[in-house]
Amino acid sequence: MDDLKEWERQITLRDGTAVFVRPIRPEDEALYGTFLAAVTPEDARMRFLGAMGKLSRSLIDSFTHLDYARAMAFVALDRASGELLAVVRLHNNAANDSGEYAIVVRSDCKGRGLGWQLMQIMIAYARAKGLRAIEGKVLHENTAMLDMCRQFGFAIAIDPKNASICDVKLDL
């Protein structure tokens, strides 16, 4: 975990909020209850591509206990309160040459540039790890995420198996 310290960052949101970004740790599991309570059902649906009930403890455990050789997640923590504001994650494919990303920003923190900054960090991490591409699945109606993907240069296509989902891909 010590070699991951180089990925720790201090960032500032558009509204001046000071945020500490670092790789996720197992003890972050304790932050998920408050975090998920602050994510609206609609925002959770956008992230998980469908309606979400309460996340199981085992699922939250899997979110916070990673094999860093195959996956990474960065948490964004409010410097003043220590609260979890957002998470971006990247899971490598079996060939370990590309990864699938996912991001969720607490609903009351959207529109402040946090998702944009986390995406930049995740892309830089993927490049440093030598991945050739980053891919994701985004609901067609999630126009904010699709706009951000376009701004970062992701190719966007309708998923051939489900027209309500877009496949996004950024060649690195």
Write up what this structure looks like:
By secondary structure, the chain is α+β, with helices and mostly antiparallel strands. The protein has one domain: Gcn5-related N-acetyltransferase (GNAT) (Aminopeptidase, 3-Layer(aba) Sandwich), CATH 3.40.630. 27% of the residues lie in helices and 33% in strands. The chain has helices spanning 32-37, 41-48, 57-64, 114-128, 143-152; strands at residues 9-12, 18-23, 71-78, 84-92, 98-105, 133-139, 155-159, 162-171. The chain is globular and about 45 Å long. The two termini are 25 Å apart. The mean pLDDT is 87.
Short description:
By secondary structure, the protein is of the alpha+beta class. The protein has helices at 32-37, 41-48, 57-64, 114-128, 143-152, and strands at residues 9-12, 18-23, 71-78, 84-92, 98-105, 133-139, 155-159, 162-171. Strand 1 (9-12) and strand 2 form a beta hairpin.
